[in-house]
Amino acid sequence: SAKLDETQSLELITLGIGPVLEAFGNAKTVANDNSSRFGKFILVKFKENGAYHCASIQKYLLEKTRIISQEVEERNYHVFYYLLLGAEDSLRDKIHLLHHEQYNYLGEESMTVYQGTSEFHRLRESLTMLRFSDEIQNSMFTLLSAILH
């Protein structure tokens, strides 16, 4: 039924959005290893009968400069580390991804605390849940690689 499909879609979006927002909006700071560097406002609208109608999420990136510089003992956004540690060889070759030590934008901190492979796969699963095609995902990863270069 349409109501069941709407509920399932809302559940998938709700479950899928967290890892994506975390990857693209969180970074290690001096005070917190997983600090949100964005704000978000979620608006959910319901019909008069209480059924889900629609939802929107507005995101506010607080630190655009973090991409090119970080304070001492801080890191860039998680997504760069997830990509570098978790991308399979075929994707790495396709998007010209180098070894993490060859990038200036990652800061001086070690990457060993990241569970890159599992986090990258979790990110891909979430993007798929949110109905991002493989083509769109690969375009996103290509852009991330270009930013690192």
Summary of the model, kept short:
By secondary structure, the protein is α+β, with helices and mostly antiparallel strands.
Write the SSE topology.
Elements: H1 2-25, E1 26-27, E2 35-36, E3 38-46, E4 52-61, H2 78-86, H3 89-94, H4 116-129, H5 134-148
Helix pairs in contact: 1-2, 1-4, 2-4
Characteristic terms for this protein:
two-stranded antiparallel ribbon; 15% strand; 5 helices; alpha+beta; two-stranded antiparallel sheet
Overview of this protein structure:
21% of the residues are buried. Helix 1 packs across helix 2. The chain has 149 residues and is α+β, with helices and mostly antiparallel strands. The chain has 5 helices and 4 strands; from the N terminus they run αββββαααα. The mean pLDDT is 77. The strands form 2 sheets. The protein has a two-stranded antiparallel ribbon with strand order 1-2. Strands 3-4 form a two-stranded antiparallel sheet.
The main pleated sheet reads as: 2 strands, antiparallel
Shape: globular
Q: How big is the Rg?
A: 17 Å
Would you identify the regions where 5 or more consecutive residues have pLDDT less than 50?
Answer: none
Percentage of residues in helical conformation: 40-55%
